[in-house]
């Protein structure tokens, strides 16, 4: 092995050691509640957009699992999220996905729709958890013990996994909606209120996946 190759391998080993240390810090809640048999991370994506559903993910990871570069989905590139999504789906003990439609959001408001999506995600798990680690919320109507963690998607590997599952699921849906409802650039903006999206909304009017309770300032 030449000196250049050795230096490259040493740098790679240092990066991996740093990443494992970061993941160790993100596992503090999982270790704190290690007596629980099945810890489930819960997170949602899509509370703020003008269009599309709100989607919740629920993920139970195996004890002491290692998924390198697991993090808050907002801190990851689309390519990295897609790769991690596949790894999570392969390694997870159980994954549940729930969602509330734009019409449901308009009917019961975004907060209640988010809770509903979260309960749906929990119900779809094939393994019943005995503890929920939630990103900054306490979900009403759930009998399972819950721990609310502010910015939990950056502090818990279970919540981070749930955030990635929810984000990738919703992003894929919005790309499909672009094909069905062209002109709003859903594939790019994912339903959020970008300048181009708002202009399209004013020009084309709303489509069926727009949240009527969110777009009153832009259309009459």
UniProtKB/TrEMBL annotation:
Domain RNase H type-2: 37-220
EC number: 3.1.26.4
Keyword Cytoplasm: yes
Comment on bound cofactor: Manganese or magnesium. Binds 1 divalent metal ion per monomer in the absence of substrate. May bind a second metal ion after substrate binding.
Family: Belongs to the RNase HII family.
Record function comment: Endonuclease that specifically degrades the RNA of RNA-DNA hybrids.
NCBIfam families: PRK00015.1-1, PRK00015.1-3
Protein's name according to its UniProt entry: Ribonuclease HII
Species whose genome carries this gene: Claveliimonas bilis
Gene encoding the protein: rnhB
């Amino acid at each position: 092995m030449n000196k250049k190759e050795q230096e490259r391998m040493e740098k790679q080993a240092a990066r991996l050691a740093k990443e494992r240390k970061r993941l160790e810090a993100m596992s503090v809640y999982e270790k704190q509640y290690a007596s629980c048999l099945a810890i489930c991370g819960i997170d949602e994506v899509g509370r703020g957009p003008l269009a599309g559903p709100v989607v919740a993910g629920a993920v139970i990871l195996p004890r002491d699992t290692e998924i390198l570069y697991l993090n808050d989905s907002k801190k990851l590139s689309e390519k990295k999220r897609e790769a991690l999504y596949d790894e999570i789906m392969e390694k997870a003990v159980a994954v549940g996905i729930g969602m509330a439609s734009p019409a449901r959001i308009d009917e019961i408001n975004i907060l209640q729709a988010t809770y509903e999506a979260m309960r749906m995600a929990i119900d779809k798990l094939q393994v019943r958890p005995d503890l929920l680690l939630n990103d900054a919320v306490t979900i009403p109507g759930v009998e399972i013990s819950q721990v609310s963690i502010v910015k939990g998607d950056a502090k818990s590997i279970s919540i981070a996994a749930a955030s990635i599952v929810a984000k990738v699921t919703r992003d894929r849906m919005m790309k499909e909606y672009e094909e069905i409802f062209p002109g709003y650039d859903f594939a790019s903006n994912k339903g959020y209120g970008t300048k181009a999206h708002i202009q399209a909304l004013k020009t084309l009017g709303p489509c069926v996946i727009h949240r009527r309770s969110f777009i009153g300032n832009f259309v009459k």
